[in-house]
Amino acid sequence: GQQVMQIPQYQHVQEGEDFTTYCNSSTTLSNIQWYKQRPGGHPVFLIQLVKSGEVKKQKRLTFQFGEAKKNSSLHITATQTTDVGTYFCAAISGGGADGLTFGKGTHLIIQP
Amino acid sequence: KAGVTQTPRYLIKTRGQQVTLSCSPISGHRSVSWYQQTPGQGLQFLFEYFSETQRNKGNFPGRFSGRQFSNSRSEMNVSTLELGDSALYLCASSLSAHEQYFGPGTRLTVT
């Protein structure tokens, strides 16, 4: 079935540093979504990317979808303590028969 | 609009028992998906219901089942509970294009 690999699993940064998480698939993706889950909370939808090479920005967050639609990244500029949480990518394969497949997530830990 | 609600929020069961979890989607959302979240396996897709029909199914044993009612509310049932079923069970509703709105989850502990 569809597999989505996400790295790194954990990322420690000093407050103010940048952060990037990467998502990779061996198959072409119809689209890719990103979610954030705060400690003790539930995943919250951030964005969906659909087009090859697409780049979208939300304030300090930049999302990219690869040209081949097999990888994606989320970059946070100048992290703040409010960015703490786990960031997941999620994808549905071209066939769409298996629902959403989530990556294992990247846990962002920020040291003040 | 009210968000996705799930009941109960916490549940403790014994091995061999069965459990039913409930989910009320956002008003107007017809798609409801269920996920199991554990530290080891992460978020895993269980199944999706749309207009009372199971549209997609993940790779879980038949002990996991679900249904959706005409008002889009959904239930999932786990029979013959095992210790490994201890997890956070998340329900998510969607209007279209797979963007998921998650509920707070039900924390199930099997002893």
Approximate shape of chain B = globular
Indicate the percent of residues in helices of chain B: under 10%
Q: Structural class of the secondary elements of chain B?
A: mainly beta
Helix content of chain A: under 10%
Provide a quick synopsis of the model.
Chain A is an all-beta fold and 112 residues long. Chain A has no helices and 11 strands.
Secondary structure elements and pairings:
The complex is a heterodimer of chains A (112) and B (111).
Chain A: E1 4-7, E2 10-14, E3 19-25, E4 29-37, E5 44-49, E6 55-58, E7 61-65, E8 71-76, E9 85-93, E10 101-102, E11 106-111
Parallel strand pairs in A: 2-11
Antiparallel strand pairs in A: 1-3, 3-8, 4-5, 4-9, 6-7, 7-8, 9-10, 9-11
Chain B: E1 5-7, E2 10-13, E3 19-24, E4 31-38, E5 42-50, E6 53-57, E7 64-68, E8 74-78, E9 87-94, E10 101-102, E11 106-110
Parallel strand pairs in B: 2-11
Antiparallel strand pairs in B: 1-3, 3-8, 4-5, 4-9, 5-6, 7-8, 9-10, 9-11
Considering the chains and any ligands shown, give keywords for the structure.
heterodimer, A: 112 residues, mainly beta, 6-stranded mixed sheet, 5-stranded antiparallel sheet, 0% helix, B: 111 residues, 7-stranded mixed sheet, 4-stranded antiparallel sheet, 54% strand
Explain how this protein is built.
The complex is a heterodimer of chains A (112) and B (111). Chain A has no helices and 11 strands. Chain A has 112 residues and is mainly β. In chain A, the strands form 2 sheets. In chain A, strands 2, 4, 5, 9, 10 and 11 form a 6-stranded mixed sheet that branches. In chain A, strands 1-3-8-7-6 form a 5-stranded antiparallel sheet, with no helix packed on it. The mean pLDDT of chain A is 92. Chain B has no helices and 11 strands. In chain B, strands 2, 4, 5, 6, 9, 10 and 11 form a 7-stranded mixed sheet that branches. In chain B, strand 7 and strand 8 form a beta hairpin. Chain B starts with a strand and ends with a strand. Classes of the chains: A mainly beta (112), B mainly beta (111). The interface between A and B is medium-sized, with 23 and 23 residues.
